[in-house]
Amino acid sequence: MKNFFDTMILDILPSLRAVMAKKLMENGFSQKEIGELLGLSQSAISHYKRDVRGYRKDAIEGNPQLLDRVNSLVREIASARMSPKDANLKLFDICREMIESSA
């Protein structure tokens, strides 16, 4: 059985980032810009775009409450009201909620 951190790092966080990256791309951001906003490399964003990473994104997109949280976070990031550090802290909160809701 995976512990909290394994589940978060290997499953949930990549899925959240995939959803966020795609939403930011829909808003006209380049892969490089998204990487800078999320504190990731451009190549990581490319993996999210091509669905190489983030295979659990359906779990996020199928949960209206989680999707609302992710959409809100994307809006805050896109409007430059949030630093990459603060964005990651909010991402960790969303990860925790996902794990708690599946337990």
Break the fold down into its secondary structure elements and pairings:
Blueprint (H helix, E strand, L loop, with lengths): L3 H23 L4 H8 L3 H8 L7 H5 L2 H15 L5 H19 L1
Helix pairs in contact: 1-2, 1-3, 1-5, 1-6, 2-3, 5-6
Describe the 3D structure:
The protein is mostly helical and 103 residues long. It has one domain (4-102). The protein is 76% helix and 0% strand. It is built from 6 helices and no strands. α1 packs across α6 and α2 packs across α3. It starts with a helix and ends with a helix. The mean pLDDT is 85.
User: What is the straight-line distance between the termini?
Assistant: 12 Å
**What is the 3D form?**
globular
How many E-type strands? Answer: 0
Number of helices: 6
Q: Structural class of the secondary elements? A: mainly alpha
Series of secondary-structure elements, N-terminal to C-terminal = HHHHHH
